[in-house]
Write a structure and sequence with these properties.
alpha+beta; 13 strands; 2 helices; single chain; membrane
Amino acid sequence: MTAHDNLHSKLVAWLKVILPVAALALLSTLFLVSRTIDPSDAIPYAEVDIEERIREPRMTSPTYAGVTTDGASVTVAADEARPAPEGSDTASATRLRAQIATPDGGQADLLADSGSLDAREGLLTLMGAVEITTSTGYRITTDQVTSALERTDVQTAGPISATTPMGDLTAGRMTLGEDTASSGSYLLLFQDRVKLIYRPAN
């Protein structure tokens, strides 16, 4: 073996030791000089959120589903709900959505800015730009609607305006409920100063 070959073998042997050590040293340096994350930075924000939740408890995206005594299915959802305050039976909610599907195949979808649920009376109240859309082609707007949860009984608190398959309609009030004269059938009833502007289909 020549001196050159001997030198080459020694060099390779040393490099096998030096290179891994150098790599480890380089990685260690990177971790040491990288910015250390301080977990305490997020604590003040977390404390504020926790304190607010304790002071004003709420539920995010709550849902309710049930069936009325006449067989209609009712589902209610909201962006946020707050439980009833002490001494009250009424919980509140924001961006409230409800759907009533009756056994005869009909459906009514209700949307409101806010609402409340009276657990004692079993009443859902929708308030603020309430919109009702029915599967029969009616789109009704009003300021406030109450809906019973144990039976199909939807009533507006005041005047309504609506677009219908027949034209534009206004009335002093509206109700949706089971037809007492025909079991299993449901009526959408407009009352008080009803006015229809008939628009025939083209």
